[in-house]
């Protein structure tokens, strides 16, 4: 009851309290801003990880934040179990995001994704249909980065691009070119591709065709 009461507490101008069913994309549209701007204002590293009751700054012109005592501590969303992620992955059919040589695969520890090496300018395509929730270079270590949100709580990440060809909020189809391979924020030209389920990295090989 206390958490529910806090969640309905009126917030100051320039701020928004996350409600059930909200996504960062939805909140950005409601407040006429972009996902990347919300991530910048709130120091977020993952656009898929927000919680009901969380207080977000939605405008750079907002006044002082409400007193911390009025802000509940949101309960973190439970991480999916490996079995749940594996079951969801079986319903996801991906295409390879780029042609080239796979030099590193997901291993769950030192590598959370796969690395594909090819020449600069090689087309990078959406592995599945979805919506672009991030296109920018504000996340250190990823260079020019595109993040696409898919059904089933999946996100795909495409890093180190030389050129991005899509904008936030844009719908993309499977196989549509979204970027060109590059080497931003890394040594050498390659695509770093990562798949996440409810914010947690998962092995994409089960949903990709054999190569």
Automatic annotation (TrEMBL):
InterPro entries: Cell_wall_metabolism_enzyme, Dup_hybrid_motif, LysM, LysM_dom_sf, M23ase_b-sheet_dom. Residues 61-83 are annotated as: Disordered. It comes from the Bacteria. GO terms for molecular function: metalloendopeptidase activity. Transmembrane segments: none annotated. Residues 69-81 have a biased composition (Pro residues). Residues 14-58 form the LysM domain. PANTHER family: MUREIN HYDROLASE ACTIVATOR ENVC (PTHR21666:SF270), PEPTIDASE-RELATED (PTHR21666). This is Peptidase. It comes from Bordetella genomosp. 2.
